[in-house]
Structure formats: structure tokens, C-alpha cells
């Protein structure tokens, strides 16, 4: 099942100007409120935020679907994983 052309996020968060690790914590908390399989788009600053947040989310088991350079910030699309009970 591929919905690469229909990767419209279920939720969008603007975390530009939010320092590490607060941006990761806010992203993680928002993902926990979402249903498994839903797509979250997060706007992050260049530098440490875009270098750290995607890797941290992947280590939590979430799927990084896309990182797009939006000229001045990055749009990260991450799909909520299924929780391991």
C-alpha cells in the first residue's frame, strides 16, 4: 500500500524557534495522542533540531516518511508507529 502522492498529514505542528530537546518532547507527546498509522508533519529549524529529532523519533520506532527543505526550515513527516504492548 503506497500513498506517497497522498501523504497529507493528519496533524501539523510548527516547532520553529523551539530548542532541543523540547521540540522532540513535544513531537513525541503529540504522536502519543495520535492513532497508530497517522501522519504528523513537524516544522523544524535547521541545525540541531533537524539533525536530532528525526533520529530520535526513528529510535522510538516511528517511520520518517519525508524531510523536505522548505528554505529556512524543514518539514518532517513522521508516521506514528504501532505501540509495542
TrEMBL record:
GO terms for molecular function: transferase activity. Residues 13-80 form the UPF0033 domain. It comes from the Bacteria. SUPFAM superfamilies: SirA-like. Keywords: Transferase. It holds the Pfam family TusA. Belongs to the sulfur carrier protein TusA family. This is Sulfurtransferase TusA family protein. It comes from Planktothricoides sp. SpSt-374.
Amino acid at each position: 500500500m503506497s500513498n506517497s502522492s497522498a501523504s497529507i498529514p493528519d496533524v501539523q505542528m510548527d516547532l520553529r524557534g523551539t530548542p532541543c530537546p523540547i521540540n522532540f518532547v513535544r513531537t513525541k507527546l503529540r504522536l502519543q495522542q495520535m492513532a497508530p498509522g497517522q501522519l504528523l508533519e513537524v516544522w523544524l529549524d535547521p541545525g540541531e533540531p533537524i539533525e536530532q529529532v528525526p533520529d530520535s523519533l526513528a529510535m522510538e520506532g516511528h517511520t520518517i516518511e519525508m524531510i523536505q527543505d522548505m528554505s529556512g526550515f524543514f518539514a518532517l513527516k513522521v508516521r506514528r508507529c504501532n505501540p509495542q504492548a
